[in-house]
Write a structure and sequence with these properties.
Elements (H helix, E strand, L loop, with lengths): L10 H12 L10 H21 L5 H6 L1 H20 L7 H13 L5 H7 L6 H14 L5 H23 L4
Helix pairs in contact: 2-4, 2-6, 2-8, 4-5, 4-7, 7-8
């Protein structure tokens, strides 16, 4: 999915999407790129976060555990509320759609989990921090997102500090 930041897609954007399609790469054009970013966060925030916080598990394990499944849905609902508070109309059905798509994927390890296992820094600010700040500025209530952000940020910072000296937090 491609689009243009802060404006509607131009002819150029459609031409680029056509080039991708001509090369066999499925590509759509978003009328509202920010809305599509929030839609993607409906999946990224819970699955990337819970996969690490639950001990390095895949999406199938999250879906199979009743408590994690409820946490996933609650996080999805918070992201949808945040998007709507930020004036990007995202329907409630987006959570169920993302859950169904994930069930169809089978065992999948989110990219942030792969980064974590490889010892790479996490995309804390891009995936959790910035959406949280925007949600707060718009007046959204996001206690679960705040908790996931704080925990992941702490884990990542501890690991980065511990690496050179091997002293744990």
């Amino acid at each position: 999915m491609i689009g243009e930041y802060g404006r509607k897609p131009s002819e150029r954007t459609h031409a680029i999407a056509s080039q991708f399609s001509a090369c066999g790469i499925k590509c759509g054009v978003a009328a509202d790129l920010a809305l599509e970013h929030w839609r993607k966060l409906v999946w990224n925030i819970p699955f990337n976060g819970l996969s690490i916080l639950a001990g390095g598990i895949d999406t199938a394990a999250i879906l199979a555990d009743a408590a994690l499944y409820r946490a996933m849905l609650a996080l999805m609902d918070e992201v949808i509320d945040a998007a709507n508070k930020c004036e990007h109309t995202l329907e409630r059905a987006a959570a169920r759609e993302q859950s169904t798509l994930t069930e169809d994927m089978g065992r999948y390890k989110p990219s942030t989990l792969l980064d974590w296992k490889a010892g790479k820094p996490l995309e804390i600010e891009a995936i959790w921090g910035e959406p949280l700040r925007r949600a707060a500025a718009a007046g959204a209530n996001t206690p679960r997102l705040e908790l996931v952000y704080a925990l992941l940020k702490h884990l990542d910072e501890c690991r980065q500090r511990a690496r050179p000296s091997t002293i744990p937090c």
